Structure formats: C-alpha cells, structure tokens
C-alpha cells in the first residue's frame, strides 16, 4: 500500500512509520524537514497547515491511506477534507483518548463511552474534529484514539515533563510530585505496540466509519508508574503527594492535561481493536519500556538534558504542599 503520514517523526508517528516499513508499505511523510526520516521513506518538506501543500500531495499520488497525526482543530480537518476527499482510500484521524467523558461515569472505557471534556481545550478540539469527520465529507474515515503513548526517548509523568528531568531528580535523591494520593488507575502504552494496532487497521475496509482506541492492557496506579521509572533508574523514588487542584492552581498551563485526563482512573477495553486486528496485543510492559527509555538516555550524555523550568515548577509545588502540611501539624 501507499501510505501518507501527515507527521511521521514524532513520538508515536515515527513508530508507526517504522511498522509500515516492516510490513512492506510504500511510505511518504509530510515533514517540516527538522528531523531525519528512514532512508526508505519519501520525505516531502512542507507545512501541514498549508492547504496548497495538502492539495499538491493529493494530486501527485493516490495514496491508499492518509494518516493524520497533525490535525488538532476543525479548520485543519477541513483542509484535509478539501485535499483528500475522493482521492484516498482511507483517511485515519489520530484523535485522543482524552476526548472520553470527564468526569468519568465508569472507569472502564469502551469506544461507546461518550465524548466530553470540560477541563481541557485540546480534548474539546479533538472532539470537534471527530464530529466534523462523522458528517458527510467524502472521506472514508477511521478514527483512532491513543492514550498516554511513550517512545524510547520519553519518561512519562503526570506532572513535571516527559524528558530526563524526572530521572535526574530521582537519581539525585530529590522528590517528585504525584497528583492526588497516587492511586488513580492508568494505562501506559509503548509506541511500538500502538503502531502494531494502527497499521493493522490501514487498508481495512471494515474499519471505515469506526473509532478505536489502542492501548496496553497493563493497569498501574501512579505510585507504581513512578516506582517503575525509579527502578529503571536504579534508585528508590521519593514521592510527594499533592492534591490535583493545588497542582492545577500552581501550574495553570498544565491544568487541562491533569484535570482533564491524568487525574482520573481510566482503563481501556481493547476488545474492539482485537476483533478488527486479530492477534493484536500490547507486548511491552511498562517496566520493560522504562528500562529501554532510561537506557536510551544513559547511552549518550548529550541526551540527558534537564529542564530548569520543570525543576522550578516541581520545587514550587512541593514547597507549597510541605508548608501546608507543616501548618496543619502546628494547628
């Protein structure tokens, strides 16, 4: 198949490109040209938000599948409709599992769970994109909703960034922040596992008109998540539990992601993706994934950059929490 990725060098999309190549597909990537792509990939340098660039791609080649990782707003979806309607066999819109209704009515999420998120604009925009694509567009649409999906260079975190900063703090014996009491259930998915599910849907006629989430079946709470990261780093974790609302008040830029997603217990029923892609299952445990990610950083000192801004945010939240606890103890 001829597959076009709008975005193909990111955390998730790079793994999907690699999987497509393994399956023998002919892959083209629209990129800004800021990152390397594999030798067997045709890289087209251009802007996703340039409608002329999309129209040019659609006219130059009839792609069997277009996978759109870079549409976050309805206007971007409209540009894709204009360019690819009637010119591709399948348009795969990468949405987000954060679109599922918050507050959660039931911890177990299926594809039939309603979509609504009053806390996070990002999720609301993804919902609006889905709604537009479910109307008459002339596109054969498949919707895919990843949850927290990490690649080799990611260290997942509910608060404090997703780079080496958390590992650096752990190794220096500094505490890290956990929202709430750390008991909210969560699912972390390796990008390679997500890619296996996604690529199984490409060119699948029965997947047109359907929505899927693709996640791991391994369920951990946030205390266990940070424990696994610390174990991969070779240390014990020092955790400071802070109410979600306090973190959100002190870090308003990250409040949507926390209050609209990570603060809730969410577990995903993956039976639908397994029905459409027989044999699909997530194979990478979170412990294995973190060993690989920490190893990726440890293999090259230049990768181990630390965010001063993230450290400042973490230290500020911890200071406020400790002050509040000290005040409570003093009566």
Question: Could you characterize the architecture of this molecule?
Answer:
- The structure is a single chain.
- With 331 residues, the protein is of the alpha/beta class.
- It has twelve helices and 15 strands.
- It is globular and about 70 Å long.
- The model has no long low-confidence stretch (mean pLDDT 95).
Major pleated sheet: 7 strands, parallel
Radius of gyration: 21 Å
- The level of helicity is 25-40%
Count of DSSP helices?
12
| Uncertain ranges | none
- End-to-end separation: 69 Å
**Overall 3D form:** globular
Query: What is the spatial order of strands in the main beta sheet?
Result: 3-2-1-4-5-7-12
Summarize the structure.
It contains 12 helices and 15 strands. It has 331 residues and is α/β, with parallel strands linked by helices.
């Amino acid at each position: 198949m001829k597959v076009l990725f709008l975005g193909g060098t990111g955390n998730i999309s790079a793994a999907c490109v690699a999987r497509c190549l393994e399956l023998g597909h002919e892959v083209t990537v629209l990129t800004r040209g800021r990152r390397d792509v594999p030798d067997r990939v045709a890289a087209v340098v251009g802007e996703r938000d340039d409608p002329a660039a999309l129209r040019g791609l659609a006219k130059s080649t009839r792609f069997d599948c277009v996978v759109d990782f870079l549409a976050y707003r309805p206007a971007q979806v409209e540009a894709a409709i204009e360019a690819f309607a009637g010119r591709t066999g399948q348009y795969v819109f990468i949405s987000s599992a954060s679109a599922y209704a918050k507050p959660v009515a039931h911890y177990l999420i299926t594809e039939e769970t309603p979509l609504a998120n009053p806390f996070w604009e990002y999720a609301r925009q993804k919902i609006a994109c889905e709604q537009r694509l479910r109307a008459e567009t002339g596109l054969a649409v498949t919707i895919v909703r990843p949850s927290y999906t990490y690649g080799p260079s990611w260290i997942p975190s509910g608060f404090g960034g997703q780079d080496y900063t958390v590992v650096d703090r752990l190794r220096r014996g500094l505490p890290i922040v956990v929202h709430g009491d750390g008991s909210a259930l969560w699912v972390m998915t390796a990008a390679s596992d997500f890619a296996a599910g996604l690529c199984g849907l490409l060119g699948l006629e029965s997947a047109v008109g359907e929505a899927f989430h693709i996640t791991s079946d391994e369920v951990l709470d946030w205390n266990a998540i940070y424990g696994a990261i610390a174990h991969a780093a070779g240390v014990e974790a020092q955790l400071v539990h802070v109410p979600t609302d306090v973190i959100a008040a002190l870090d308003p830029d990250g409040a949507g992601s926390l209050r609209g997603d990570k603060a809730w217990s969410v577990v995903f029923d993956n039976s639908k993706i397994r029905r459409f892609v027989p044999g699909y299952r997530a194979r990478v445990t979170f412990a294995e994934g973190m060993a690989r990610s920490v190893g990726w950083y440890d293999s090259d000192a230049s990768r181990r950059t630390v965010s001063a801004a993230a450290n400042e945010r973490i230290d500020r939240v911890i200071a406020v929490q400790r002050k509040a606890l000290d005040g409570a103890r003093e009566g």
